[in-house]
């Protein structure tokens, strides 16, 4: 079976093609970069409308395929920015309708975990999903991917990007902050906000901006922000792993490309006798291949959707989806059940 996956939850429009052995035949992305300031959902949606057809065409070309070769279309149904989600959904519906093939809307966060499981070979990990808009620790338990910890305010990547803007670094500051941190000579203490398995970043960001106004160097601010924020993520990931007894930790999301975060998580994992897994950079970021792969898993486990079931869901939670494609490892508990997405 050949599956086309369409991603469009935030700034990236992606089209990926995979087969049923999770071979990635194509994975094309086009990322919207604002001239200045943050992301305006309308502007991003306009970008997606303009790039959707060319990106899908590029994916077909790089896979050496024609539209007729595709057997199933899946798309990111949420969570994400409404106008962007609607463009991806419209592209998927048009493709499925025209080619008369089935369509499946998938949860973007679960796509990160499933592509990681498929390509890294880990089997039952806790996922630290650290991206622009999302920061969650997710793991499988009793038929669902459950969120064990998450940010109470902004995503880690959004915090880095907003801070970068305040400090004049331009958009997409994560990699720049990582580079600057290498040349620091001092750590400045910043608010460390961990509540149980949740984190919060806005206090840290405000304090970092205050350091900048006092004349502290960008290098030292970058270093202090990384050490503090990534320690917070490592602590909550460890707590979740201990709580649910997982021996594997998988990283996903754009911030998973950060080498300092990887180093901290790996050290924590080794200390617990656990192992860390990180997919290739192109699969950590938002991309269509992961959407295609989750579409395949759902379809092969019997999930079917009509066009009327494909409405986008801006606040689509990870634990709303019944994980029909994994064997249940434990008996069902009396915990609250959410409506089944079938
Ligand atoms: P999502 O829709 O899943 O919330 P997203 O649309 O923001 O995610 P991703 O591609 O997953 O997209 O992640 C982008 C984020 O990753 C940006 O905030 C960027 O600053 C951050 N990032 C990229 N590389 C690095 C790095 N080396 N270190 C830290 N952050 C990074
Ligand atoms: Fe993502």
List the helices and strands and how they pair.
Elements: E1 2-7, E2 12-19, E3 24-31, H1 41-63, E4 72-78, H2 82-99, E5 103-107, H3 108-120, E6 126-130, E7 135-141, E8 144-150, H4 156-166, H5 174-181, E9 194-195, E10 198-199, H6 202-213, H7 218-244, E11 248-252, H8 259-271, E12 275-277, H9 281-284, H10 288-300
Parallel strand pairs: 1-4, 4-5, 6-11, 11-12
Antiparallel strand pairs: 1-2, 2-3, 6-7, 7-8, 9-10
This protein binds adenosine-5'-triphosphate and fe (ii) ion (FE2).
| CATH topology (fold) name of the largest domain | Nucleotidyltransferase, domain 5
Q: Can you count the beta strands?
A: 12
Please identify which CATH superfamily of the largest domain we are dealing with: ATPase, nucleotide binding domain
How many domain regions? 2
Looking at how many chains there are and whether they match, the oligomeric state comes to single chain
Which stretches are low in confidence, meaning pLDDT under 50 for 5 or more residues running? 330-342
Q: What is Rg?
A: 20 Å
Output the CATH class name of the largest domain.
Alpha Beta
User: Taking strands numbered 1, 2, ... along the chain, how are they ordered across the largest sheet?
Assistant: 3-2-1-4-5
pLDDT averaged residue by residue: 94
Distinct small molecules: adenosine-5'-triphosphate, fe (ii) ion
> In angstroms, what separates the terminal alpha carbons?
20 Å
What descriptive keywords fit this protein?
342 residues; alpha/beta; Nucleotidyltransferase, domain 5; 2 domains; five-stranded mixed sheet; 10 helices; 42% helix; globular; disordered C terminus; binds adenosine-5'-triphosphate; binds fe (ii) ion
């Amino acid at each position: 079976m050949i599956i086309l996956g369409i991603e469009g939850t935030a700034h990236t429009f992606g089209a990926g093609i995979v087969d049923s052995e999770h071979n990635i035949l194509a994975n094309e992305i086009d990322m919207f970069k604002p001239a200045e300031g943050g992301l305006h959902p309308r502007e991003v949606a306009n970008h997606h409308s303009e790039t959707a057809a060319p990106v899908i065409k590029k994916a077909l070309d790089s896979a050496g395929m024609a539209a007729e070769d595709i057997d199933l279309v899946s798309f990111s149904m949420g969570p994400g920015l409404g106008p962007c989600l609607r463009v991806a959904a419209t592209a998927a519906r048009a493709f499925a309708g025209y080619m008369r093939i089935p369509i499946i809307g998938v949860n973007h966060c679960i796509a990160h975990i499933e592509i990681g499981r498929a390509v890294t070979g880990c089997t039952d990990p806790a996922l630290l999903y650290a991206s622009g808009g999302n920061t969650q620790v997710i793991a499988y338990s009793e038929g669902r991917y459950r969120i064990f910890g998450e940010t109470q305010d902004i995503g880690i990547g959004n915090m880095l990007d907003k801070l970068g803007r305040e400090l004049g670094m331009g958009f997409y500051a994560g990699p720049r902050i990582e580079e600057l941190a290498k040349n620091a000579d001092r750590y400045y203490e910043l608010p460390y906000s961990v509540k149980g398995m949740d984190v919060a970043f806005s206090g840290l960001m405000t304090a970092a901006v205050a350091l900048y106004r006092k004349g502290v160097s960008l290098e030292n601010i970058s270093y202090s922000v990384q050490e503090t924020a990534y320690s917070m993520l490592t602590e909550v990931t460890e707590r979740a792993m201990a709580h649910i007894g997982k021996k594997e930790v998988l990283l996903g999301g754009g911030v998973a490309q950060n080498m300092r975060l990887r180093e901290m998580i790996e050290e924590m994992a080794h200390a617990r006798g656990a192992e860390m897994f990180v997919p290739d950079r192109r699969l950590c970021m938002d991309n269509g291949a992961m959407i295609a792969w989750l579409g395949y898993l759902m379809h092969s486990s019997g999930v079917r959707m009509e066009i009327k079931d494909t409405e986008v869901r801006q606040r689509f939670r990870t634990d709303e989806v019944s994980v029909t494609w994994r064997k249940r490892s434990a008996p069902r508990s009396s915990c609250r059940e959410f409506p089944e997405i079938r």
